[in-house]
Design brief:
mainly alpha; Alpha-lytic protease prodomain-like; 2 domains; 69% helix
């Protein structure tokens, strides 16, 4: 299990590194897209720019989530990281609607964008950077059990497909089909909306305390502990890497308090030993055959 301070430092470092790469990619696409009047290239650039903004929001969320438990937040502040993920999704939706609005305006004015060899070079270069970023970010997210990094890596991965569609659009414009430019921009908006929806659904499952571990697996492990007669009311919640478990364990009614307390500690140890990311296990000891309804 990771030391929390180390974990948050690692996530913060990854976000700062990715922030600078996202800004470099964004400005390259926006500046050259404006110079050549290619809407799809500008849209992709703004998409990357908001990647950078989402990194800033992520840094703020991580700063809050890193705080230790206190009187008002006895379970810690980890869900602030999940809330930061939702803010990222909201920003994605705003960007998508703005791109669609601009694209429909482009249908009306029928302007002819300019496509050069540099246009293709910029898009291919930034796509390679995005591939490196999403690979690094997802690897770090899995390593550190960070739903924020994993969510942001999914977002960055969508940039690769967006950039690929822009390159196809550039080729179509070069062949004399400028209408492809706003069409590609609308497709980009749909990709952005899909990425945002995936982030929101994942975050909602965590905030609504969706079960994180198969209770049958926990029951099998606990019932193999010597002295345990049965277990029930097994509940799990929390984000990956910060899961809370509570359950009721039945023991012999004649068992001493000391021995039943020892069994509860063994149960806690076995659960943490068999499942990754367990933050705390609360064991309710009760005498067998007197289960409350």
């Amino acid at each position: 299990m990771f030391d929390m301070d180390y974990r948050f430092r690692q996530i913060r470092s990854a976000l700062i590194y990715i922030l600078f790469l996202n800004l470099a990619v964004a400005f390259a696409k926006i500046i050259y897209g404006m110079y050549t009047d290619v809407l799809s290239m500008q849209s992709d650039g703004y998409h990357s720019l908001f990647d950078g903004l989402s990194n800033v929001i992520g840094l703020i969320g991580i700063h809050i989530a890193a705080k230790p438990p206190d009187k008002e937040h006895p379970y810690g502040h980890r869900k602030f990281e999940t809330l930061a993920s939702i803010f990222i999704a909201v920003i994605l939706a705003i960007v998508a609607f703005e791109i669609v609005h601009t694209a429909f305006n482009r249908f009306d004015n029928g302007s002819m964008p300019e496509v050069t060899a540099i246009s293709f070079a910029v898009m291919i270069g930034t796509m390679m950077v995005n591939y490196a970023v999403t690979t690094y970010e997802r690897k770090k997210g899995m390593e550190l059990n960070s739903e924020l990094l994993i969510a942001d890596s999914a977002h960055t991965k969508s940039d690769i497909y967006v950039s690929l569609s822009v390159i196809i659009g550039l080729a179509a414009i070069k062949l004399g089909y400028p209408v492809i430019d706003p069409v590609v921009s609308i497709l980009i908006a749909l990709v952005i909306l899909r990425a945002g929806a995936e982030i929101i659904f994942h975050s909602i499952s965590i905030l609504c305390d969706e079960s994180q571990i198969d209770t049958d697996e926990i029951e099998e492990i606990v019932c193999n502990v010597e002295g345990v007669i049965d277990c029930h009311r097994i509940r799990t919640r929390g984000p990956p890497g910060n899961v809370f478990v509570d359950l009721h364990v039945e023991v012999d009614p004649e068992m001493s308090t000391y021995k039943s307390h020892t069994i509860s500690h063994i149960v806690q140890y076995r659960i943490k030993e068999n499942f990754d990311g367990i933050e705390d296990v609360l064991v309710h000891i009760e005498p067998a055959h007197t289960r409350s309804i």
